[in-house]
Q: What sequence folds into this?
């Protein structure tokens, strides 16, 4: 019992550190957009989505290389994709009744959401197939396709953004223009990134112990506990963005994070010493794949149909996304 309390406490401490550092990292990433003049859309897609996915990256590497658990690594990634879309639905509660969130975001997010669905489908194919085409020892064509399609996705989104009407960024932050130089911003950005990496590296250790002590499967622990804690930076960024009225920043960060998350599976496979990470992961993870696909499809419908108002706390599309996420967790628990 004492060891279980220590493991839970350690898990919560690491999660709290990630939450705090993720919020600071988002702040300095926003300043970076101001100072460099690259714009919040591009910074949000590459820097913010990549940064808020740093916990998933480090947890995945730690789970694959140190814990050697394919289920923790894969469960964390797929669970994070589902949790990110759940965050998108919950953010709907923070907007006025006449402004459903998916009706308020730009339709340019349809491209990122669609590319995310293609990538998550490939992950499902990798889990389903009994064998893979071997490229090099320890790396199959499925994992390699994650890297290639991620790079293609970034290129497509970038070219689409150049064709679209540029959204005007807000005025530069006073602190960035008066007291912080580019070097200082990069330095502080790097410090908080290192803090996130350090905390994220410890998470799989505590999660693995919790899994053994409670008897829960690693796929369930990875999908629920690890995914929720490593998605804390996305929560911090989304809440801050919605409060500032920048729903596009929140949506772009979440859809972009899902694209980057599948790319992380490629990196995890490189570090996994047991063979091919998707082959060793449990087929139960396919439940999360189907859930993410359904949630993404509902989000695309909401952005396209654009309902005018919501009756209660949630718009119908946001409620359905949330309901699918809950069903995903319940099914995983029952399969446990």
A:
């Amino acid at each position: 019992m004492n060891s279980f309390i220590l493991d839970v406490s350690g898990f919560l401490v690491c999660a709290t550190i990630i939450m705090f550092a993720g919020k600071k990292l988002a702040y300095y990433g926003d300043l970076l957009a101001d100072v460099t003049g690259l714009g919040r859309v591009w910074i949000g897609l590459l820097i913010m989505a990549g940064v808020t996915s740093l916990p998933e990256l480090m947890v995945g590497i730690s789970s694959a290389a140190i814990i050697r658990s394919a289920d923790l690594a894969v469960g964390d990634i797929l669970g994070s994709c589902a949790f990110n879309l759940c965050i998108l639905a919950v953010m709907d509660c923070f907007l006025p009744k006449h402004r459903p969130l998916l009706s308020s975001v730009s339709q340019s997010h349809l491209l990122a959401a669609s590319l995310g669905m293609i990538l998550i489908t490939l992950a499902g194919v990798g889990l389903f197939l009994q064998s893979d085409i071997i490229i090099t020892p320890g790396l199959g064509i499925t994992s390699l396709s994650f890297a290639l399609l991620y790079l293609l996705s970034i290129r497509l989104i970038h070219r689409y953004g150049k064709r679209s009407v540029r959204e005007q960024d807000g005025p530069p932050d006073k602190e960035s223009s008066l007291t912080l130089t580019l070097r200082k911003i990069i330095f502080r950005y790097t410090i908080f990134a290192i803090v996130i990496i350090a905390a994220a590296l410890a998470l799989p250790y505590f999660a693995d112990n919790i899994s053994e002590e409670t008897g829960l499967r690693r796929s369930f622990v990875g999908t629920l506990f690890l995914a929720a804690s490593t998605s804390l930076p996305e929560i911090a960024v989304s809440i801050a963005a919605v409060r500032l009225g920048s729903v596009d920043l929140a949506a772009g960060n979440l859809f972009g994070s899902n694209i980057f998350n599948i790319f992380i599976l490629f990196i995890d496979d490189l570090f996994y010493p047991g063979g091919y990470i998707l082959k060793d992961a449990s087929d139960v993870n396919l439940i999360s794949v189907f859930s993410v696909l359904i949630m993404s499809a509902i989000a695309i419908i909401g952005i396209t149909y654009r309902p005018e108002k919501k009756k209660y706390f949630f718009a119908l599309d946001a409620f359905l996304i949330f309901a699918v996420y809950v069903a995903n967790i319940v099914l995983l628990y029952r399969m446990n």
Summary: Confidence is low (pLDDT under 50) at residues 167-178. The longest helix spans residues 2-36. The chain is about 80% helix and 0% strand.
